[in-house]
Amino acid sequence: MHPSLKIYDEAVKGFINTDFEILTLVADCEFTEGPVWNKEGFYLFSDIDANTIYKITEGEKKQVYISNSGTNNPNAEGTRPDHAGSNALTYDNNGTLLVCQHGDHTVAKWDGKNLQPLIHSYKGRPFNSPNDLIVDKLGRVFFSDPPYGLKDAEPAPEKFQPVAAVYCWNDSEVIMVCDKYEYPNGVCITPDSKELYVCSNKPSEEFISVYDVETLQYKKILAKENSDGIKCDPAGHVYLCNKDGIIVINADGQRMALIEFPTIPANCCWGGAALKDLMVTARENVFLIKNLLK
Q1: Who's near 34: CB < 8 A, 6+ residues apart?
Q2: I want to staple 246 with a disulfide (CB 3.0 to 4.6 A). Which of 15, 73, 208, 259 is the partner?
Q3: Residues 6+ apart with CB under 8 A from 215
Q4: What is the domain extent for residue 187?
Q5: Predicted pLDDT at 58
Q6: 122-136 per-position pLDDT tens digit
Q7: How many domains does the chain have?
Q8: Is residue 183 part of a domain?
Q9: pLDDT tens digit string along 75-98?
Q10: Has residue 294 been placed in a domain?
């Protein structure tokens, strides 16, 4: 068993390979975030402070994929210059890359040459700094919008949104889903497409909220945990990116395991041909655990 793994529930051995290796793919970034797997055989991730999206393939050096990925004007009024880059990345159901942009306060789409604004305002005001996002089977985009990309990482209701929230974008209509957090962060949809999980990494907001994906109504608290990024595996187990590492919980919110890392994880994604590898963005580093899932 790998020394970084702590087991709280022996049932975790039924779906995780415990004798894994943590590979370091990147160790020279500033603040890595938002990883996503491309079925062509590579990963993308954001370096927020470098305002760049990189491409990485195991065994190769990272390559610039999109420059100025969060904005062309990091010094714009109200924007936090050192945190104006892109954050979470995902692909929509047509294979188009979607990008959370701190500096431009939008969710943009990549047309292969340029980033085009896709979701840019709610009730006539720009968003704060879109942070994490996910697309459901109907093509709706769910995304969180905390103030981390604003000046001093504080709300600026006179210019941007008066609250931090999680939204659902559906064919040009934007609906506020969750306003229970001052700093909403990770969003994730369960494998059965029925529930949306929302979390925060602020110690004062130590709870994971559950919403009905169809009705967008609040249901319950899954667990009293903090998390930055959050992901599910195909069986519905939940992986929380926490200051302690990656915490694995079951669908009832009970801890099953903890995987510790040299630096604090911000987000993660499944990748590899069988989608069993876990790629983790953690401050200046990017880590990979191959075949974590059985």
Answers
A1: 45, 46, 86, 87, 88, 89, 100, 132, 267, 281
A2: 259
A3: none
A4: 5-289
A5: 87
A6: 999 999 999 999 999
A7: 1
A8: yes
A9: 999 999 999 999 999 999 999 999
A10: no
pTM of the complete model = 0.98
**DSSP labels for the chain?**
--TTEEES-GGGGGTB-SS--EEEEE---SSEEEEEEETTTEEEEEEGGGTEEEEE-TTS--EEEEESSS-S-TTSTTB-GGG-SEEEEEE-TTS-EEEEETTTTEEEEE-SS-EEEEE-EETTEE-S----EEE-TT--EEEEE-STTBGGG---TTTS-SS-EEEEEETTEEEEEE---SS---EEE-TTS-EEEE---SGGG--EEEEETTT--EEEEEES---SSEEE-TTS-EEEEETTEEEEE-TTS-EEEEE--SS---EEEEETTTT-EEEEEEBTEEEEETT-B-
Quickly count: other Cβ atoms within 10 Å of residue 33's Cβ: 27
From 38, 36, 2, 45, select the one nearest 22 (Cα to Cα).
Answer: 2
Token output for 183 = 């700093």
CATH number at residue 77: 2.120.10.30
Q: How far apart are CA 170 and CA 190, in angstroms?
A: 19
